[in-house]
């Protein structure tokens, strides 16, 4: 199982980016797919997750970020709008087949992780 995150970059505050995560090695339609991030000298934190449709979000990104999946392409996306300097971090995608709803925001519940893509938001 491999997850490949992409789409990071440098953007000014208020701008937008779309991250992508391509999954391979399995059929991921039944998997919970999530995004986490880790800023310098901070712990990894939950950003968003999705199973079938809709999504669950961290309070810090609600209303600004949208997670979506394209089951036919085994991909998920994270559309990030109204970016803030505090959104600067390495963003990781993650996947697991057996996560229950109450654990979607728990990083240790995910078995598979991508390599991360850096998002830098300048003020």
List the helices and strands and how they pair.
Layout (H helix, E strand, L loop, with lengths): L1 E5 L2 E4 L4 E8 L7 E7 L6 E6 L5 E2 L7 E6 L4 E6 L8 E8 L15 E2 L3 E6 L1
Parallel strand pairs: 2-11
Antiparallel strand pairs: 1-3, 3-8, 4-5, 4-9, 5-6, 7-8, 9-10, 9-11
Offer a quick outline of the entry.
The chain is 0% helix and 49% strand. The chain has strands at 2-6, 9-12, 17-24, 32-38, 45-50, 56-57, 65-70, 75-80, 89-96, 112-113, 117-122.
Number of strands: 11
- What structural class is derived from the secondary structure elements? mainly beta
Uncertain segments are: none
Q: Separation of termini?
A: 37 Å
> Which percent bin holds the helix content?
under 10%
Percent of sequence in beta strands: over 45%
Structure overview:
The protein has 123 residues and is mainly beta. 0% of the residues lie in helices and 49% in strands. The protein has strands at residues 2-6, 9-12, 17-24, 32-38, 45-50, 56-57, 65-70, 75-80, 89-96, 112-113, 117-122. A hairpin with a 6-residue loop joins strand 4 and strand 5 (45-50). The chain is globular, with a radius of gyration of 13 Å.
Entry keywords:
seven-stranded mixed β-sheet, single chain, 123 residues, four-stranded antiparallel β-sheet, mainly beta
């Amino acid at each position: 199982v491999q997850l490949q995150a992409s789409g990071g970059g440098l953007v000014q505050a208020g701008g937008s980016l779309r991250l992508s995560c391509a999954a391979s090695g399995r059929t991921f339609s039944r998997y919970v797919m999530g995004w986490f991030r880790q800023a310098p000298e901070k712990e990894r934190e939950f950003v968003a997750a999705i199973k079938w449709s809709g999504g669950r979000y961290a309070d810090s990104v609600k209303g600004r970020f949208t997670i979506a999946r394209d089951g036919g392409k085994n991909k998920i996306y994270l559309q990030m709008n109204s970016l803030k300097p505090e959104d600067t971090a390495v963003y990781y995608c993650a996947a697991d087949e057996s996560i229950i709803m109450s654990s979607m925001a728990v990083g240790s519940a995910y078995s598979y992780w991508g390599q991360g893509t850096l998002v830098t938001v300048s003020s």
